[in-house]
């Protein structure tokens, strides 16, 4: 049985088709090209919530389609309300930051983002640890709208002043429970509380997790603003 729970005030109506999500034709066309016929349960609820500008804490099991649930509204916002990229040749000011616990997951999000933004001017860059930072530094210096990053490498660039968070419109924390299992709590706090970070009232923040233990609930209360909770499937914790 599919367990579904949405809590919070003024919950937007779920959608049954991508066509009713209010996405621009460009994004709808890329969805079609990717072969997605209809939204998964988490997408049915998460899309209208994020499209309406609300913060979201979503829990759904692995494989339920959480990536597109946040990428589609994010790319739509970048296209519908384009803002200039500041390219200084010294640092990078991403408009969207997506945090992912591992290089593999970061690369998956990166390729999905490229797929849904294909043919647009939206620039996506991925950074992760385990390899020298030089090439990644060169890439971010050319400017990026969407930055997909593992916490350690992001902090590395932040501490060198190579990335600033003062133009962030969307902050996405993917795989929250895995982040904490991997010991990234301090890193997440450091990023979310970075001196350059846009206040939570002035950005949109979305957290995704497969489970909802107390430490994730704590993070949600701390870093989300007037958020909705969405639980799909068997939610533990
Ligand atoms: P999660 O992040 O919840 O673990 P993913 O976003 O990685 O799940 O999605 C799992 C798989 O399902 C991916 O291969 C993705 O391309 C596919 N997928 C996601 N949404 C849809 C959809 N609406 N229709 C068909 N396939 C989808
Ligand atoms: Mg995922």
TrEMBL record:
The keyword rRNA-binding does not apply. It is an enzyme of class 3 (hydrolase). GO terms for molecular function: ATP binding; hydrolase activity; RNA binding; RNA helicase activity. One of its GO terms (biological process) is regulatory ncRNA-mediated gene silencing. It comes from the Eukaryota. A motif (Q motif) lies at residues 16-44. Residues 16-44 form the DEAD-box RNA helicase Q domain. It catalyses: ATP + H2O = ADP + phosphate + H(+). Its EC number is 3.6.4.13. Keywords: ATP-binding, Helicase, Hydrolase, Nucleotide-binding, RNA-binding. Residues 47-230 form the Helicase ATP-binding domain. This is RNA helicase. The gene is vas.
């Amino acid at each position: 049985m599919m367990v579904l729970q949405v809590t919070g005030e003024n919950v937007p109506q779920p959608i049954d088709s991508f066509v009713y999500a209010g996405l621009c034709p460009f994004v709808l066309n890329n969805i079609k090209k990717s072969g997605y016929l209809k939204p998964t349960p988490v997408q049915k609820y998460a899309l209208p919530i994020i499209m309406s500008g609300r913060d979201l804490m979503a829990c759904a099991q692995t494989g339920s389609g959480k990536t597109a649930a946040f990428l589609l509204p994010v790319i739509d916002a970048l296209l519908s309300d384009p803002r200039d990229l500041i390219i200084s040749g010294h640092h990078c000011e991403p408009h969207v930051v997506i945090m992912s616990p591992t290089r593999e997951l970061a690369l998956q999000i990166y390729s999905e983002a490229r797929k849904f933004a294909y043919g647009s001017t939206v620039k996506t860059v991925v950074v992760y640890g385990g390899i020298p930072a030089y090439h990644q530094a060169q890439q971010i210096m050319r400017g990026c709208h969407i930055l997909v990053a593992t916490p350690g490498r992001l902090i590395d660039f932040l501490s060198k002043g190579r990335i600033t968070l003062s133009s962030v419109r969307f902050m996405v924390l993917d795989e929250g429970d895995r982040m904490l299992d991997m010991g990234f709590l301090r890193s997440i706090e450091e990023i979310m509380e970075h001196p350059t970070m846009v206040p939570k009232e002035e950005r949109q923040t979305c957290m995704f997790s497969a489970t909802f233990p107390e430490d994730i609930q704590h993070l949600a209360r701390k870093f989300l603003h007037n958020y909705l909770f969405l639980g799909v499937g068997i939610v533990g914790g």
